[in-house]
Design a protein that fits this description.
alpha/beta, 20% strand, single chain, 6 helices
Length: 186
Amino acid sequence: MSKLRAKLAGFTLKLFGWDTRQLNGFYKVPKAVVIMAPHTSMNDFTIGRLAAWAYEKPAGFFMKKEALDWPIAGKLLAKMGAIGIDRGNVANHNVELAAERLKNSDELWIVITPEGTRKKVKRWKSGFYKIAQMAEVPILITILDYKKKIITIADEFHPTGDYEADLPIIKKYFEGVTPKHPEFKT
């Protein structure tokens, strides 16, 4: 990764008032599923991408595969870490592909928004949990708080295998967090 890109990304975050000092050393974890919530705005992607660059972390993220078909933008998105998924095909093995990618990497974070969309949803999708479990990597619980302008990796969570029991523990970290659009917070 480019040192210049890291410095520019860090400078840009500071310029817009974002504090990344509360990453608590977790940025040293080489491989992880990073959940970022609450996800209510496209700005979340920009802030998260800048933070990954600032800390020189190779980070992949899911995006509908059609976006990667665009000639120039698709190549740029792929270079930034986009992993194309077919959201219309349930049996497309996206979870397995992501877990395999993590297993075969020396250093990689796969960033996932558990809501699966920027709108309010009834429940989080479980793919992030399954990927972490299959790849045998931790889940880094990452919070974007727009009111405090803080990006925090709150904890490193190791799935127990009981999603229904673990999910309330994970969601507790997001209580009191202010997203860009609070009306969409799940």
